[in-house]
Amino acid sequence: MGSTTDKIKGNANEAIGKAKQGIGEATGSDRLKGEGAVQEVKGKGQQAMGDAKDAAKDAIDRAAAAARRAAE
């Protein structure tokens, strides 16, 4: 999965998780609140994975550019 896909899925899971928690709070459903909390954390993890992939790609790109400059 690409970094953008991870971030999009992460944002969606975080939003859905927050919504589930709100609905669970409004209806008194501990199960729904729990599911929402888990889904929100999953979304935050997906976003972090997307950020890590971006950082790794940037580091590789910088290293490749430095290697090209050194070879010239």
TrEMBL record:
It comes from the Bacteria. InterPro entries: CsbD, YjbJ_sf. Belongs to the UPF0337 (CsbD) family. Transmembrane segments: none annotated. This is CsbD family protein. It holds the Pfam family CsbD. SUPFAM superfamilies: Hypothetical protein YjbJ. It comes from Bradyrhizobium frederickii. Residues 1-56 are annotated as: Disordered. Residues 6-58 form the CsbD-like domain.
